[in-house]
Each structure stands twice: as structure tokens, then as C-alpha cells.
């Protein structure tokens, strides 16, 4: 069964950091672009960042540029994991964060403008930034 599982969310004060992880089981992420999305209460799901299958291309929403970093773990035994390092967190970053995968045959270049293009989704992890 193809599955994505997010972890690493929690409660953090403004200015703090969190690292989210997206782990795949049942398939390899080698041939997939990975996107991170978030959804706050009452708002549409929005793209945060994405990374291409080989890690060579990354994109970020303007609201997180310079604060968030997406990366693939290329170590052999953990190559099915993608991370989102979030620094200098702000209250407006509060949301449920989801990772999603799309095959490169469908999306050759990493693009998170349309979340509904993505085929596989995790269950989400809550990030709350509050003092």
C-alpha cells in the first residue's frame, strides 16, 4: 500500500524552528516530485515548497522564502524521506502541513501551484506558532 506519513509538527514560539519529515512506504520517492502544502482553518490549501525527484530543483512560496528549506535525504537507508526545515516561524505559519507526491511522468518539473495535481497525500501534521 502506497503511503506518506508526516511527522515533526508541534507547538513552537514565534521565531522558533521545526523540522517536518515526510516518509514514504510501499513505493520509492525516487521517481516523484514532492510538495509540501498547508491549510489553515477557513483557508484554501496552499503550496509551501516542492523538490524535484533528483533534488536538483526546489521552489518556495514567497511567504516562506529565506525561512524554509526543503531537502531529500539521499542516504541509502533513508532515501524515502523528504524534510522541510522551518526557521523563524511566524504565527501566520500555523496550519496543518501535508506532503504529497506526484510522478515525474506527470509533472516533469517541480510545481506546487495546483495541489490537486498530486496523487498521494499524507494525513497531515499540525504546526502551531504561538506565544
Model description:
With 131 residues, this protein is mainly β. It has strands at residues 3-7, 10-12, 18-25, 32-39, 46-51, 58-60, 68-72, 81-86, 95-103, 120-121, 125-129. Strands 2, 4, 5, 6, 9, 10 and 11 form a seven-stranded mixed β-sheet that branches. A four-stranded antiparallel β-sheet has the order 1-3-8-7, with no helix packed on it. A hairpin with a 6-residue loop joins strand 4 and strand 5. It is globular. The N and C termini lie far apart (40 Å). The mean pLDDT is 93.
Please give the largest β-sheet.
Answer: 7 strands, mixed
The total count of helices amounts to 0
The SSE string, one letter per element, is EEEEEEEEEEE
| Mean pLDDT value | 93
Task: Compile the SSE list and pairings.
Elements: E1 3-7, E2 10-12, E3 18-25, E4 32-39, E5 46-51, E6 58-60, E7 68-72, E8 81-86, E9 95-103, E10 120-121, E11 125-129
Parallel strand pairs: 2-11
Antiparallel strand pairs: 1-3, 3-8, 4-5, 4-9, 5-6, 7-8, 9-10, 9-11
In short:
With 131 residues, this protein is mainly β. The chain contains no helices and 11 strands. 0% of the residues lie in helices and 46% in strands.
